[in-house]
Amino acid sequence: MDWKTTRIEALLEQALIEDRATSDWTTNLTIGPELRATASIIARQELVVCGLGAIPRFFEIFAQLDPRPASHRRYEVVSHPEIFDGVRVHEGQVLAVIRHNARTLLSCERVILNLMQHLSGIATATRRYVDAIDGTGTRVLDTRKTIPGLRILEKYAVLSGGGTNHRIDLASGILIKNNHIALGGGVATAVKNALEKRKKGQRVQVEVRTPIELEDALENGAEAILLDNMTPAQAAASVVQIKAFLAANPGRTIPTEASGGIKLENIRSYAETGVDFISVGALTHSSSAADISMRITAEE
Q: What pLDDT, in 10s, does the model give residues 256-268?
């Protein structure tokens, strides 16, 4: 089991512990211990599905935390073959059907819905941004602006929506930003130190805000450029500047990324400047939860 899988398992377990799902007094006092039920998870809006794979894992983890007999742990999760994470569905579609002990279904209902609503909301928003720049060749990136503890799952939701992951953490890449430049002795010194001391395979990306900063970054060996808080016109001029530099320095490739102030309404204007990537913090920090419900009925 790799570290990402281990982290996800821990997140799902913590969600159940936080809700004290195995100490659900309302359910335990009102629902018979042997009753079995069927739960249908239903989309109440058009959305991009994300989080289906977490459903069985919630039940497996719940079983490990729950002292009840093994006979209460038998369950089945069924979804249509055409419905899986990343698929766009319509309002009213059933995303999955679960057959399980009624008490377990009720005790896990909230954590399952919370996670699916959050992740599907991110996936749905990401798909809107991706669709908005269709045909331009530019790709939509996420950022590290995520809810603490949920980053792995939120970045998975971005992938489900058709986006691309930026670095997952501070150890996953080198991005010299304005504060690094200010505290590290300027562009030339910061880039020089990074290039000399980096590990093999690490690419040095530099954030710039002006044509002068861009020229400094290019001349000092930047291997990727982040155009920060520029207007579409400024970003387009920067792309022209980079292409001119590359024409004079054959053999070098410098991916470009636009970031800051990107909205659904203006993202295509940025994509049409010719940048390779556009990073959008709103995908993870501002996406609305998708409207998903769970309908539970007793089995005969």
A: 999 999 999 999 9
Positions annotated as catalytic residues are: 110, 145, 177, 207, 228
In angstroms, what is the C-alpha Rg of the chain? 24
Which residues span the domain enclosing 86? 3-129+288-298
Say which CATH number the domain at 276 has.
Answer: 3.20.20.70
> 166 and 120: one domain?
no
User: How many alpha carbons fall within 13 Å on the CB side of residue 100?
Assistant: 26
87, 48 contact by CB (below 8 A): yes
Structure confidence by residue, pLDDT tens digits, 123-155: 999 999 999 999 999 999 999 999 999 999 999
What whole-number distance in Å separates Cα of residue 43 and Cα of residue 169? 32
pLDDT average, residue stretch 174-202: 94
- For residues 246 and 292, membership in a common domain is answered with no
Buried b (16+ CB within 10 A) or exposed e, 63-81: beebeeeeebbebebebee
